[in-house]
TrEMBL record, chains A, B:
This is Transcriptional repressor. Coiled coil: none annotated. Keywords: DNA-binding, Repressor, Transcription, Transcription regulation, Zinc. Belongs to the Fur family. SUPFAM superfamilies: Winged helix' DNA-binding domain (SSF46785). The keyword Membrane does not apply. The keyword Iron does not apply. It holds the Pfam family FUR.
DNA sequence: TCACCAATGTAATAACATCACATTACCCTA
DNA sequence: TAGGGTAATGTGATGTTATTACATTGGTGA
């Protein structure tokens, strides 16, 4: 696992914005927020995001082409992660379920499928938004 | 459920290409393959895909921005669907797992999250490609 | 000093998706 | 059978997301 001190300048800047934002951001939103820090091109953001995802500090939400800071501790070892994404307010909840993981790995084993990455995303409306 | 006879011309054309293709296609690949059928613009493809997905005849693969024809029978009632996607050959396997579905719905209930759509995609390498 | 490698900067382009508006086809019914 | 309503279609422009290509910088170790 990588610690904050080991991050490069651009990686730190991107992680900082994500960490201080409630909800996911697109790469281009990140770029806009980092223009006054000297960011000029999408690739600067994408490169930082790639590394941060490799380190497990950031996750990509495939169904909305956006990114969130990991809500687990930095030393948390990720298994299969699932996300609950509120389409109304953008709130994202990250969680792990050992049973789900076991079932999906079971399918992979049965089918001799070498699993490299699993995406689980639930879209819907969160409790707060339902109440409102 | 909708039967093939009820599909419009554009919907039939799109489904036809998808059904006769091994593996997923992007919207623009579909467009290219349908140019000689009179297709001229992306929206023609996206509109047809939207309806076909509504009918449950086509699924979107979020992690690769592509679409596949459903491999279940037309009258199959979809629960939560999971996909195994081979990054080497493009093969896609669609399956349902009642336990996974129950666990994810359980999380939603616990968190008072109104679930509208669930995405489960496993990326990796299929048995054939591993053997080769 | 030099070779090497990781990180960065920049412009251009590719890939994916939607908006806005006009037109056509079809069904229902007055 | 004319008129109104709705679904489907055609078309161009635009918006959004992601990658390619190439140049430059900065440190690390022989
Ligand atoms: Zn995490
Ligand atoms: Zn919400
Ligand atoms: Zn299906
Ligand atoms: Zn394969």
């Amino acid at each position: 696992m990588v610690h904050a001190q080991e991050l490069t300048k651009n990686q730190s800047l991107v992680l900082d914005v994500l960490s201080h934002t409630e909800g996911p951001l697109s790469a281009y939103s990140l770029l806009d927020q980092l223009r006054d820090k000297g960011f000029r091109a999408p690739l600067q953001v994408y490169r930082a995001l790639d590394k941060l995802m490799e380190f497990g500090l950031v996750h990509r939400l495939e169904s909305i082409n956006s990114f969130v800071a990991c809500t687990h501790g930095h030393d948390h070892k990720h298994g299969v992660i699932a996300f609950g994404i509120c389409d109304t307010c953008g709130r994202v909840d990250e969680f792990c379920d050992a049973v789900v993981e076991e079932r999906l790995k079971g399918w992979s084993k049965e089918h001799a499928f070498r699993l490299s990455k699993t995406t689980i995303e639930m879209r819907g409306t969160c409790a707060s938004c339902l109440a409102a």
